[in-house]
Amino acid sequence: MVEIMHSNILELFELREEALDGGGKKRIEVQHNGGKLTARERIDLLLDEGSFEELDILKVGRSATSDGDEHPGDGVITGHGTINGREVFVFSQDFTVTGGSLGEGHSQKICKIMDLAARVGSPVIGLNDSGGARIQEGVDALAAYGEIFHRNVNASGVIPQISCIMGPCAGGAVYSPSITDFVFMVEQTSYMFVTGPNVVKTVIHKDITSEDLGGAQVHARKSGVAQFVYPNDILCLRAVRQLISYLPSNNRQKAPILDLNDPPERTDPALDYLVPSNPNQSYDMNVLIYSILDGAEFLEVQPHFAGNIICGLGRMGGQTIGLVANQPAVLAGALDSNASSKAARFVRFCDAFNIPLICLVDVPGFMPGPEQEHGGIIRHGAKLLYAFIEATVPRITVIVRKAYGGAYVVMNSKHIHCDINYAWPTAEIAVMGARGATEVIFRKEIKAAADPDALLSEKMENYRKHFMNPFLAAKRGYIDDVIFPRDTRHRLIRTLQFLENKKSSRPDRKHGNIPL
Ligand code: HXC
After folding, report:
1. pTM exceeds 0.85, yes or no
2. Mean pLDDT over all residues of the chain?
3. Residue 195 backbone zone (phi > 0: left; psi -120 to 50: alpha; other: beta)
4. Nearest protein Cα to ligand 1, atom 32
5. To bridge 229 with a disulfide, which of 26, 220, 340, 441 should be the other Cys (CB 3.0-4.6 Å)?
6. Contact 372, 336 (CB under 8 A)
7. Which of the listed CATH numbers 3.40.50.300, 3.90.226.10, 1.10.10.60, 1.10.340.30 matches domain 269-432+468-498?
8. Ligand 1 site: residues with CB under 6 angstroms?
């Protein structure tokens, strides 16, 4: 007897086929011609091959029922899959379907996977490519955004949330990505702004392109909204996979261990020559960073923003660590407002997700001047101070060279309860640099001297000899050990090992009030 397939099964084939087509061949061609991949192609590149399991492929939204025109998947593809074998949830907006605009059904699909991700403790990755609120759905579309924002906030610090901006992102829609932990952007094809060029023209009579107003480079270099920028969709998605490899799936787990076959006891004699004898000469802190990390692998966060501080993820002894380092090669490594808020946000991310912090210090102080003071350096600097102090993950500091004044205390010093503080013999731990200090203390004598320059030099030399070293701080116990530069990697890994089961608690409270 010949079995006939049930008509519903045949219908399911058809419905799925229709959904897989998205907005149709023509619109897909437009997407490709614009240098963009489709929503489905992006998911395929992001996830392990064949791992994607789609949810709500048949869902249609409110505007579909009102105008009778059903939008496949309601403009967004949602589901879960794996990255290097670990589960993640993903939504990918389909610009070929009503411009990826967000209405009620579209939002419900996103909210469903956000709820599932929070429940099972897996990251959410959003691939954004959308014309914003679906105009035909009016206030329902705005309400739909609110539901997403609400979930973004509740999931913050619970599961990692990652946003890729791979097309337009305008109006209030920008606020969901900006609440998430990391924003990736693609050059030339993505932009983010609260009000677009047309509104700018109307309100402030200024002509500006989308790219100049809110393109990838603007947000990577000027605003600090984007943490990562890549030249195309493929490289962007590959980088998201790399980022995920460093992270735990949720705040109850530790990051996965990955052995890169780099011996923990490896020393680097070249580091003994890294710090120049002349304190005014700069050097590149990246030399130290790449030397101590496993396999010289480092994922720098916000590499183009506030280059005077370096933040990023690497591994030591297989364990993920968050690294915060002053960069003497940019603005002499001084802390300004942007550097402070960049590092503060990174420290808080690491703390939320059980990633130990390593701080490499060469800081001459906070950046002086009216621009910084009026821009709120006090408020921004306080964020970094606050972030380090509230962090309960293992905290380790190595003072490489300068550690002056308030910036010394802020940069994860012993005095704000860092667990272990090392210094290189080249460390200069003091209230301020030699010139500033001698000019304050010996102002009168220098003014009255027959040869003021000679006296200033003599006093500075004297000050350097007595104060510009790590030994005074080590005598007080503020520095746990003065280490040989070449041994830095080994000492850090051993310290991470013994701090692994560190327990530290915070006072009982609803939440603190970080100076935002
Ligand atoms: C409904 C939309 C849409 C939207 C685009 N489309 N945006 N449909 N609501 N918001 C549709 C278009 O009508 C078109 O349909 C298809 O998507 C592709 O759009 P095009 O304009 O042909 O594409 P392109 O030339 O690439 O321009 C893309 C665009 C432009 C720059 C995004 O579409 C645009 O300006 N859209 C409006 C953007 C906007 O102002 N959104 C509201 C932002 S405010 P057809 O059928 O013709 O192909 C907001 C508030 C959020 O989002 C608040 C949260 C609290």
Report:
1. yes
2. 95
3. beta
4. 131
5. 220
6. yes
7. 3.90.226.10
8. 98-99, 101, 131-135, 142, 145, 168, 170-173
